[in-house]
Amino acid sequence: MSEDTQMTVAKTILAQLGGNRFVQMTSAKDFSGGPDCLMFRLPAASTKHRANAMRIYLDPTDSYRLELVKVTRAKGPEVVDKREMIYAEQLQSIFTDMTGLYTRL
User: What is the pTM for the complete model shown?
Assistant: First the structure.
């Protein structure tokens, strides 16, 4: 599978979150993805739980699983909030609920 094909899901998730507007509003950075996920870092000081990363997975049920992660050197990644069975039209509102960061004005 080519890298472009693997990144299709990640690019689609980012577009559903709001694309460039999402990036500007949340200060998200360091985006990476795989065949079924999108991962990125968040400014920890501005999120609930002081979490600093988000992982979004596309499940076989065509719904999403969101994981808010706090990554530290001492403990490594720790999932501090997890939501499942999220549909595309719910991504922005659930993201805001989990992080406290708005995706649009």
Answer: 0.89
DSSP 8-state code for residue 102: -
CB distance 10 to 34 below 8 Å: yes
**Close Cβ partners of 103 (under 8 Å, ≥ 6 residues apart):** 17, 18, 21, 22, 25, 26, 92, 95, 96
CA distance 59 to 61: 5
Other C-beta atoms within 10 Å of 59: how many? 12
Tokens representing 53 are 């990363």
Query: How far apart, in whole angstroms, are the C-alpha atoms of residue 36 and residue 59?
Result: 8
**Tokens describing residue 49:** 């739980």
How many CB atoms neighbour CB 76 within 10 A? Answer: 9
Give the pLDDT confidence of 32-74 residue by residue, as tens digits. Answer: 998 899 999 998 776 777 889 999 999 999 999 999 999 889 9
User: Whose CA is closest to 93, among 23, 40, 17?
Assistant: 17
